[in-house]
TrEMBL record:
The keyword Transmembrane helix applies. The chain crosses the membrane at residues 176-195, 201-226. It comes from Corallococcus exiguus. This is Lipoprotein. It comes from the Bacteria.
Length: 451
């Protein structure tokens, strides 16, 4: 890892550029990089209600065996080097025991660290989780450095931490599972806060997935907010200082982003890049995240495992992925719009569906014409009839598939949209690009029986 002094330096750099236009550079291995400038407000964090969040985290946790050394496990997942020795907390004697030669905690540690550690253990007692409840004392005799960040992150989450404990209540050791999620989450943020030239493997897939769930703007806010949390945590001399730092970061994050982050961190525990990539498209809210992935980053969420490296600077996220993972034929953007798609050869548009059918004729044997972006009155008013009645938006579909897709749009699917509205009603408020990306995804997933 980079030296600790680089964290505040990067805070200044990022915070100073927070008003600049953010962009995503997508390297596909073919030609020049694709540059996308996501429109602000187009990708609010995916809405995850409590039931879907708790259900998803509970299901993910069933395949995890929590490690007694969660920080060490998280370091292996993200390929981060060790920074300290190993210690054990003795819950009966309420003291920390070094693994190997060493002196008693009170005799060797600064008074502020000793008192902070005692306050942390008292907090665990007050929250009915006695002992080293977050496994902060496994590798250090006191709450110090990374442990401070993890504790502040735990204090930032509040309700979301309670929801996770609800999800883990039937496990043999709920606290061990909670510690595994917390250390995975914190270690990832530390890696992102002081990045190598590129993050890779699980960290790269995690970054791309997180952006898909929360959007580029919120993603940047999470980084800048965490850097401030790091500075505040290092200056903290009392438990209340850490609490204040955590609560400030909690407000920056918001509940939807916190749920998405916690869910992805749970999915990442002990996983590989391919394993995490396979899980992400099946999580709650993945449909909305898939729209964000294509509109803001230019690739299919289903191909997130193909993300090889991600680099984050003050103004740009640079993503390199394998050939064939790109869903959009983007050529670059400007004026604050998402990437435009190339018109197919022979592109034609009409003012009405009847005009289209008169010119194009039947869709084919056992096929029907299908609008990718639906021809609802609202869409016609917002986007104009020719944006709907054209050879790019209307395609032939098998009759059965067309019927199934139409039924899907008329249904209420909270597990996919996070909304009590029908899929059609939920989608109608979104941009043309988002509706098109979702429409294409719906055809694919309904055809495969996934939706």
């Amino acid at each position: 890892m980079l030296p600790r002094w680089s964290i505040p330096l990067l805070v200044v750099m990022l915070a100073g550029c927070s008003g600049t236009t953010k962009s995503v550079r997508l390297h596909t291995g073919h030609g020049e990089p694709i540059v996308l400038i996501p429109r602000s407000g187009d990708a609010a964090p995916v809405k995850l209600d409590e039931d879907n969040f708790v259900g998803a985290v509970e299901a993910l946790a069933r395949s995890v065996r929590p490690s007694p050394r969660p920080q060490e496990t998280a370091r292996r997942v993200f390929e981060v080097e060790s920074r300290s020795g190993l210690y054990l907390y003795d819950p009966r004697g309420h003291r920390v025991i070094p693994l190997g030669p060493g002196e008693h905690l009170e005799g060797t540690q600064p008074a502020t660290e000793v008192e902070l550690t005692r306050a942390y253990l008292r907090w665990c007692e007050r929250t009915h989780k006695p002992g080293d409840c977050l496994r902060l004392l496994v590798e250090s005799p006191t709450v110090t450095e990374d442990g401070r960040y993890a504790l502040a992150m735990a204090l930032a989450q509040g309700v979301v931490m309670d929801e996770m404990m609800e999800a883990f209540k039937d496990m043999a050791d709920p606290q061990a599972m909670m510690a595994a999620v917390l250390w995975t989450w914190t270690t990832y943020m530390i890696l992102l806060a002081v990045p190598e030239p590129f993050s890779k493997g699980v960290a790269a897939v995690m970054t791309a997935s997180l952006i898909a769930y929360v959007g580029v703007d919120t993603f940047w806010s999470l980084i800048v907010g965490f850097k401030r949390l790091v500075e505040d945590a290092e200056r903290a001399t009392a438990f209340d200082d850490l609490r204040e730092a955590g609560e400030r970061y909690g407000k920056v994050m918001g509940r939807n982003a916190a749920r998405a982050f916690a869910m992805l961190a749970t999915a990442a525990i002990g996983n590989t890049a391919a394993g995490l990539g396979a899980k992400v498209p099946k999580l709650p809210g993945a449909a909305q995240a898939a729209v964000h992935a294509e509109a803001q980053m230019g690739f299919r969420l289903a191909a997130v495992a193909d993300v090889g490296t991600v680099a984050v600077s003050a103004e740009t996220v640079t993503i390199a992925l394998a050939p064939g993972a790109v869903a959009m034929s983007a050529k670059g953007t400007g004026g604050g719009s998402t990437a435009s798609k190339a018109r197919p050869t022979g592109y034609r548009a009409w003012g009405s569906f009847s005009g289209f059918k008169k010119a194009m004729g039947p869709a084919g044997k056992n096929k029907e014409w299908h609008h990718i972006v639906e021809q609802t009155p609202g869409n016609a008013k917002r986007f104009g009839p020719q944006s709907l009645q054209n050879t790019e938006n209307i395609i032939p579909l098998d009759k059965t598939l067309h019927s199934d897709v139409s039924a899907f749009f008329s249904s209420i699917r909270r597990d996919i949209t996070g909304s009590p509205l029908t899929v059609r009603q939920w989608l109608s408020t979104q941009s043309y690009e988002a509706q098109r990306d979702f429409g294409l995804l719906a055809i694919e997933n309904v055809g495969k029986g996934l939706w």
